[in-house]
Design a protein that fits this description.
7-stranded parallel beta sheet, binds nicotinamide-adenine-dinucleotide, alpha/beta, Dihydrodipicolinate Reductase, domain 2, 2 domains
Length: 275
């Protein structure tokens, strides 16, 4: 399968190039990044220390959109919204990893998925997607008898908070418990906050150093607590999952999917856009 990487010069983009090269079912066909980047024109293979591939990093997706079977986009929300339109016009499949999309950008994504196949997930690691399933079970069993907090830590360069994964974890728990996350989320605490309200779901964010990504959901009752934790130690965990999603997406013409679909875990609250 011919794969195109959008945001190829970024932290995830470079790891995705390596993951595409390592997968026997995929071939790197296109690499693009933002116009004006000093890396436009560089060879994608040389960028990741794997020798010359003959795929240069371009800056105009529209001109290259027909050259790959599926694109993988890990960039920024405004750019991703434009890439969705370009891929829709070109009839190209799209795997989206960008986090922090607003409601309007999500609406663009949903509309495009009526014409092309799109996979969108806040986290492509297989372990995190298993955790989404475990959270469903924990929330269903522990129910309204526990206080629920989501704690996440990422590297100092991350530009959105809480992480898309932390929000998805909160949504999975909220949907399982019949709560609306928009109503019950509490983001950080300071000053005289008063006692904790049981039905809230708290989010705490840490930004420091080079932490790749850590998430804990804590279910705390009187006398005991359960913690479900995932720790990513390499971006390759996300990249390998995104490439697996790209290959899987090849079997679909149109529709909106997430990593739960790719892994055959769909059903319940754990998939994106359900509930
Ligand atoms: P980064 O800043 O290192 O890379 C982003 C890249 O996108 C840069 O090279 C930038 O030049 C490029 N870009 C920006 N605008 C562009 C445009 N218009 N066209 C083409 N390229 C453009 O960031 P990163 O750490 O690689 O993260 C990228 C995104 O992926 C973030 O939203 C992050 O939260 C998300 N992310 C998701 C997962 C997941 O599993 N879903 C995992 C890690 C990161």
């Amino acid at each position: 399968m011919k794969v195109g990487i959008i945001g190829a010069a970024g932290r995830m983009g470079r790891t995705l190039i390596e993951a595409v090269l390592a997968n026997p079912d995929t071939e790197l066909a296109v690499a693009v990044d933002v116009p004006g980047s000093s890396l436009i024109g560089a060879d994608a293979g040389e960028l990741v220390g794997q020798g010359r591939l003959g795929v240069t990093i371009g800056d105009e997706l529209a001109a290259l959109a027909g050259d790959a079977d599926v694109f993988i986009d890990f960039t920024v929300p405004e750019a991703t919204a434009r890439h969705i339109e370009v891929c829709r016009a070109a009839g190209s499949r799209l795997v989206i990893g960008t986090t922090g999309l607003n409601d309007q950008q999500l609406a663009t994504l949903r509309a495009a998925s009526e014409q092309v196949a799109i996979c969108f997930a806040p986290n492509y690691s297989i372990g995190v997607n298993l955790c989404f399933k475990l959270l469903e079970t924990a929330a269903a069993v522990l129910g309204d008898d526990v206080d629920i907090e989501v704690i996440e830590a990422h590297h100092r360069h991350k530009i959105d908070a809480p992480s898309g994964t932390a929000l998805r974890m909160g949504e999975v728990v909220a949907q399982t418990l019949g709560r609306d996350l928009k109503e019950c989320a509490v983001y950080g605490r300071e000053g005289r906050t008063g006692e904790r309200e049981r039905a809230t779901i708290g989010f705490e964010t840490i930004r420091a150093g080079d932490i790749v990504g850590e998430h804990t959901v804590l279910f705390a009752a009187e006398g005991e607590r359960v913690e479900i934790t995932h720790k990513a130690s390499s971006r390759m965990s996300f990249a390998r999952g995104a490439v697996r999603a790209a290959v899987w997406l090849g079997g679909h013409e149109r529709g909106l999917f997430d990593m739960q679909d790719v892994l055959g875990l769909a059903g319940g609250s754990a998939g994106w856009g359900r509930g």
